Amino acid sequence: MVHHSSPEAGALRNASAPSHQIEATANLQSHASELMSARTLYTHSSTPRAEVVSGGTLTVPPLGDTASTTRGDVYKDAAVTPTRAPLDATKTVADMTKAGAIKDNTANVDPVERPKASDGTAPTIKVQFSDITAANKTQPDFVVKQDGSIQMNNNPEKSGQRDIVIEVERQNGQLMPSETQQKAIDDLYKFLDARVKADNPEAAKAGVKIDDPQDLVSKETEQAAKAQSSDSPRQSPADLGPAAEEQTQRMNRFRGSGNGQMSRQEANDYFPERTVPRQKNENDNIAAMKDTVAGFTSKGAERPYEHVVHRGERGWGVGRYGMTYDNFANWLSNLDIDGLEELERQGKVPKGTAAKMKAMKASVAKAKESGKDSDLDPFLQKMKAGDPNNPLTAKDINDNFGKEVQELAATHQIGRFTEEMGREKQSVSPGELALAFMTGKAPTAEDLAKPENKRFVEAANQSYQIALGRYETPGDGPVKFADASNMSQAMQNAVGKQLWRGYDGATEQGNLGCAITVSRILRAGGIEVGDQLSVNGLAAKMREMGAQKVSLEEAMRSGEHYVIIKKQGGSHTGIGLGRTVVENSSGQRRTVERDISQSSLRSGSYAFILPTKNNG
Length: 616
Prior knowledge:
Blueprint: H1 7-12, E1 22-23, E2 41-42, H2 93-99, E3 103-104, E4 124-129, E5 142-144, E6 150-152, H3 156-159, E7 163-168, H4 179-199, H5 201-206, E8 209-211, H6 219-225, E9 228-229, H7 242-252, E10 259-262, H8 264-268, H9 284-295, E11 308-310, E12 316-318, H10 325-333, H11 337-345, H12 353-370, H13 378-385, H14 394-400, H15 403-422, H16 430-439, H17 445-449, H18 451-472, E13 479-482, H19 486-494, H20 514-524, H21 535-544, E14 548-551, H22 552-558, E15 562-566, E16 572-577, E17 580-585, E18 590-595, E19 605-609
Parallel strand pairs: 3-6, 4-7, 4-8, 5-7, 8-9
Antiparallel strand pairs: 1-2, 5-6, 10-13, 11-12, 14-19, 15-16, 15-19, 16-17, 17-18
Helix pairs in contact: 7-18, 9-18, 10-15, 11-12, 15-16, 16-18, 19-20
C-alpha cells in the first residue's frame, strides 16, 4: 500500500532518498500504516520492514474493580495504628518488638539464609514496594503494612547480613505510600540507620548506603541521615540530565504494581506541556512516543520548548526533546527545503523558517567538508560547543530552533532510528527507541545489556504505555495503567529459545512444543501452571485459576496479556499482548514473536486473559 506524502512528510525527507517508496506504519503496535509520520520504513523485499511494536512490554489494561491512583489518594484515610509505640534507636530491634513498636512475625515465616556482610562493612538498607505480581519472592526483613504497622520477619541484628530489606505492602495498582505508610517508612528507616551507625564508626562518619529505587523514603529523611547512594545503578545513561533519572524513578513505582487507573490530570503530570498541534499523519502512537522522550528531558520545566540541559560531550540539549547538535544536524541534512517552504506558506511554521533552515543546512555541509566548527551557523556552534560559560538563552532557541521546528525535527529523529533499528530486527520497543533518541545512536546488543540502559528502557516502555493511554481513553475518563515488566519481560526473554527442551521426545523435538513453551513463559512471568504438554491441559489450567475466557478480538483490545487457544484447524497455543504474539514455531523449532496477522492463531481461536497475580 502506497501512502501519499503530506507536506510535513516531504519536509522531513531527503530529496535524494531511495527511489523505492518509503512508507510508515500506523502505530507502535505492529499493523502497518503511518508509523512515524514523516520518516518511514523501507518496504522493498530486500530490506525487512521494522514493525515498531510493544514487544510484549506495554499494556493499558481495562479498568479493574480495585480503585487506585498515582497519588495514592484512596489510601490517605487509612487509620494510624494506635498501638504502635515510637521507635527508639538507643534500644535494640528485639527491645522494640517487646515494646510493641514492631510486630515480631519470625515464628510464622521460614528462615532464609541471607548473604553475610564482609567484616567491618556496614549493611545497605534496601527499601522497596511489594511486587503483587510475583509468584515466589524472598521474605523481607521488615514489612510496612497498609495500616502503617511494622512487621519483622527476620532480626538483622542477629544475622549480620549484607542487606537489610524493608518492604512496603501495597494493594493492586498502588503507586504511592499512604500518608500513614510514609510516616512508618521514614520512622523505620531512621531507626535502622541509627542502629547501623551505632555499630559501625565508618558508617557513622560517611553515612549508611541506601538502595531505594522507588524513592519510598522521603528526601528530607535521607538528607537528614546523610545517606549514601548504593552501588546499584541509579543514574540514567550517557549524561541524559537530571530529568531522565527523575522520570526513571517515577516509572519504577509501577514495577510490581499490578494494574489500576489514574485521573487524566495525573497522567498528564508525567509529561511536559505540548503547545504545538500535531502534524498531519501524527497519530496517537507517534505523539505518545514524542511525549515519552519529552518526559525524560524537559519534565518539570516551566517552558519546555525553551529548556536547556548540558549533555556532556554532546553539548547543549535543547527544547522539549533535549535535542543535541547531532540530532539537529542530522535533521537538517535530510531536510527538504521546498517542503518546509510549503509548510511556511500554510502557516504551520513561522515566516522566515525555511530561509533560516536553508542557511543552517548549508553551514552544516560546509563544516562537514572543512572539518571546522567555525563554519557552522553561530547558533549551531554554540549548541555543539556546550560551553557552560556561554549557555543558550531562550531568545537563541526561539530565534533559531522554535517549537514548531522542534516538533518537526523530533518526528524525523524518531523515524530515523525506527528505520535504522528495524533493519536489524523486526520489532523495536518504544523503550529502545527512546534510548536511541536520547543517546543519539541506535543501541547495540551490548548497549542494551548494560544495567543502566536496561533500567532506562524499562522505564521508557512504562512511560510510553501511560502516554498512549491518555490518547486512547475517550473524554476525561480515567487513564488505565499496568506494570509493564514481569510477563512482558518473560515474553521477550523467550524469543529465539527452545523452551521445549527437556521434553524432546514428547514434543517431537519441538514440533509439538507450543504448550510447554507457553507454560514456561507463564512461569517466568509469575504465573505457575506446571509443565503442560498439551493445549487441552493448558486450557484446563487457565479455567482452574479463573482466567477470563474471551474472544481473541476482545483479548487483543484489552491491553492485558492473554493465552490464545486454537481449536479449529489444528491445536495450537501462544501468549499475546495487543497484536503481538509469542509462540513456538514448529518449523523453526524455537520461540518466535509475530504480529497476529502472521500467525495461524489469528483464526479459529479464543483467549484467556491472564490474572494480575497468581491465583493458581
